[in-house]
Amino acid sequence: MVGGGQLARMTHEAGIPLGIKFKLLSDTPQDSAAQTVNDVVVGDYRDLETLRRFAEGCDVITFDHEHVPTEHLRALEADGVVVRPGPDALIHAHDKGVMRARLTAIGVPCPRHRIVEDPADVAAFAAETAETAETAGSGGSGGAGQEAAEGGKAGWPVVLKTVRGGYDGKGVWVVRDETEAAEPFHAGVPVLAEEKVAFTRELAANVVRSPHGQAVAYPVVESIQVSGVCNEVIAPAPGLSEALSGEAQRIALTIAKELGVVGHLAVELFETADGRILVNELAMRPHNSGHWTQDGAVTSQFANHLRAVLDLPLGDPRPRVRWTVMANVLGGDYPDMYYGYLHCMARDPALKIHMYGKDVKPGRKVGHVNTYGDDLDEVRARARHAADYLRGTITE
Amino acid sequence: MVGGGQLARMTHEAGIPLGIKFKLLSDTPQDSAAQTVNDVVVGDYRDLETLRRFAEGCDVITFDHEHVPTEHLRALEADGVVVRPGPDALIHAHDKGVMRARLTAIGVPCPRHRIVEDPADVAAFAAETAETAETAGSGGSGGAGQEAAEGGKAGWPVVLKTVRGGYDGKGVWVVRDETEAAEPFHAGVPVLAEEKVAFTRELAANVVRSPHGQAVAYPVVESIQVSGVCNEVIAPAPGLSEALSGEAQRIALTIAKELGVVGHLAVELFETADGRILVNELAMRPHNSGHWTQDGAVTSQFANHLRAVLDLPLGDPRPRVRWTVMANVLGGDYPDMYYGYLHCMARDPALKIHMYGKDVKPGRKVGHVNTYGDDLDEVRARARHAADYLRGTITE
Asked: What is the number of H-type helices and E-type strands within chain A?
């Protein structure tokens, strides 16, 4: 696995019972996964020769993140290395412009969007979406994607994203006018404009797909974001209609199939007040919105990602219990979490703690907790309490 | 953790989410746990200086097996090393003679037993137990333990055990007469004679105890042995009365407290036709009879063993589901289990496979599977099928 973050750490953990030999390419020996994996190569994933040496002796290589340059992945494939997901799929997680164009082409509902050239072009986009809000379906080729052009009420503010390199709210701006629209262009990377969707909540549809085409769909979850960072996930999404849940799963399965995804695919979605679902982001790897599966599903996203990339039959994605809640643990003011452990473990013996071995920095994701049970309010309160206590924002 | 077997492998795995730094002392770099742990010292646990160097920088040391010499553990403690469980507890798992004397002293029911000197003394033991079978409570100090002397029908055959070094049926003989009784004495180790208990089935009561005295009890399980090797575990033990279940848990908790056990304690038990429970063996570490907890309990035995030895509050030991069945996977004629994976995973997507990374040798424990559900017959059949298929004794 390329990338030494917590996703690699938890994927390695999930591979131990399957007897899977796991080799890691990590930026540093201190990275989250490098602390627990016993076969670690330290090196730069942006360097093709490093990737080539790493790939020697691997049956398959897969990824903790989507930042490996696409041309390197193509070079590895040309060498005969098995890359899963492959570059033709990963480009859609790597480049938001390519992703939006492709999803629109295959009929998947997205926010209206187009690549913008400069702040004046952003203003033009805002005007276009404000107009088309009244006249659904009027978007043309290269214009704002027409699939979602029925919700109305776009215009300013506009969401701007650099097409590459963003994550957890980085590389994303919500701008209110042409002046504010200047900043995203400073990076010199193409910028994608998207309408700011008036969503009621965020959902995620997670699926896993094998090279031979088997696919499984996890229950659709609700993802609660704070400042662009996932804070809490509720599985399944409370009160989601069977129709929308089915549509969300079908969208994710369609994307996985049409884009040739192998492994875990997370499709982040907006649910709108008028009962529609729009695709926000894609991730072709285990994802924060699937961490609940470690304790709440028969087979975790990590185990199923490994099974998929190794072309083993996939595991049962069904939930084991009525409700599972995941809450991210962010770093607070205390570098040592030991005292938090004592309190949280004693208070809630059924709490499931997953820490990443990262140095605590304020606001940094350093772990997550899972709780499960039959009473959603109680399950949420337990997860919330543990996450807040470990962070240090509450002390009892 | 001292010892590189599968118990260390699975304990390490359970420690990853808790962010526990895990260091391993392994006989070879190929041992089961040495394949997955990233901080491995290769060395001989029988060498005190090796143990001393290993213990440097460890907050606590614990064990994958009970073979570390007691005098070495005492020397480590004298050095200031925190050893859990400590030598005063571990001696009872290390030496069956000490264990029997101590359990009898604290009123825990055991098979009648005593240390025997030679084959003639075994014959004397057989005669004593045949007599006392008729006259309950007549055993004296140094004679066959009286606690169990009410079941009747002892005499020949007699069970002989070397007091140290046995496991999985090794170091145990069932002898029918004085001639057969000669072999166990060849090793030069003291020999313990025990009555052959007419048991209806074997149970195990697993508990975990912390240094500060917190303890949790897992549901009592049925353990099905084949040729002295655990083959299958059913959790909870089907049809076990609440009274006997409670008694078994109380016995295990009493042993843990009285012997000062820290960590996981497995108490293997005989259930007799006349409704009694007798202690067979003790293990002060994670144990085969607790493997079901990985998928069937809120907190696994491995996680709770770590929490105990680190004096963290213990996790909830309750079952997550009505029935969980564990079946050991023994090595068969096929060195490569990959094709077995394809079939078993496709046939039963909810199957939980736990392999140890060991070379396949006929009859060697190389892994286990867990299944769970509401219908015991179906859950057992699934576990049995997968274990037999992976071994190669069935092909469809």
From this structure: 11, 15
Residues 6+ apart with CB under 8 A from A345: A351, A353, B307, B312, B313, B314, B315
Q: Are A394 and A385 in contact (CB under 8 A)?
A: yes
Q: Place domain A207-320 in its CATH homologous superfamily.
A: ATP-grasp fold, B domain (3.30.470.20)
Torsion of CA A356, A358, A364, A365, to 10 degrees: 0
- For residue A292, the 8-state DSSP code is T
Residues ≥6 apart with Cβ < 8 Å to B16: A9, A10, A12, A13, A36
Quick check: A36 and B38 CB within 8 A? yes
Q: And the tokens for A361?
A: 């920095």
Q: How far is CA A9 from CA A40, A309, B16, B19, B79, in A?
A: 12, 16, 8, 11, 35
Cα B52 to its chain centre, rounded Å, is 27
Please list the residues that pair with A283 across neighbouring strands: A266
Distance set, CA B71 to CA B54, B76, B100, B163 (Å): 16, 9, 20, 16
Q: B interface toward A at CB cutoff 8 Å?
A: 9-10, 12-13, 16-19, 21, 35-38, 40, 216, 294, 298-299, 307, 312-316, 318, 320-321, 337, 341-342, 345-346, 349-350, 352-357, 367
All CATH 3.30.1490.20 domain ranges in chain A, comma separated: 112-195
Q: How confident is the model at residue B168 (pLDDT cuts 50, 70, 90)?
A: low
ipTM, two decimals: 0.92
Helix (H) or strand (E) holding B184: none
In DSSP notation, A99-165 reads HHHHHHHTT-----EEEE-SHHHHHHHHHHHHHHTTSTT---TTSS-GGGTTS---SSSEEEEESSS
Looking at domain B206-320, its CATH class is alpha beta
Question: What region, left, alpha or beta, does residue A92 occupy, with left being phi > 0 and alpha being psi -120 to 50 degrees?
Answer: alpha
- What's the CA gap between B156 and B217, in Å, rounded? 36
- In chain A, which residues fall in CATH 3.40.50.20? 6-83
Parts of chain B belonging to CATH 3.30.470.20: 206-320, 322-396
**Token pair belonging to B7:** 């118990």
The CATH number assigned to the domain with range A322-396 reads 3.30.470.20
Place of tokens 């085409």: A213
Ranges in chain A annotated CATH 3.30.470.20: 207-320, 322-396
Domain B112-195 has CATH 3.30.1490.20: yes
User: Quick one: DSSP state of residue A190?
Assistant: -
Q: What is the pLDDT of residues A186-236, one digit of tens each?
A: 988 899 999 999 999 999 999 999 999 999 999 999 999 887 777 999 999
Instruction: Mark A299-321 as b/e (b = at least 16 C-beta within 10 Å).
Output: bbbbbbbbbbbbbbbbbbbebbb
Contact criterion met (CB below 8 Å) for A42 and A27: yes
The shortest CB-CB distance from B9 to any of A10, A16, A18 is to: A16
Residue A261 pLDDT exceeds 80:
yes
Return d(Cα A223, Cα A323) in angstroms, integer.
14
CB contact under 8 A, B345 and A40: no
With an 8 Å Cβ cutoff, are A315 and B345 in contact? yes
Residue B212, classed as helix, strand or coil, is coil
Average pLDDT over residues B347-372: 94
User: What span, in angstroms and rounded, lies between the C-alpha atoms of B66 and B128?
Assistant: 32
Q: Tokens 């999803």: give the residue.
A: A103
Can you name the CATH fold of A6-83? Answer: Rossmann fold (3.40.50)
CB atoms B345 and A316 under 8 Å: no
* CA geometry: angle B116, B119, B125, nearest 5 deg: 50
Q: For position A339, what pLDDT does the model report?
A: 80
- The pair of structure tokens assigned to B364 is 């060697």
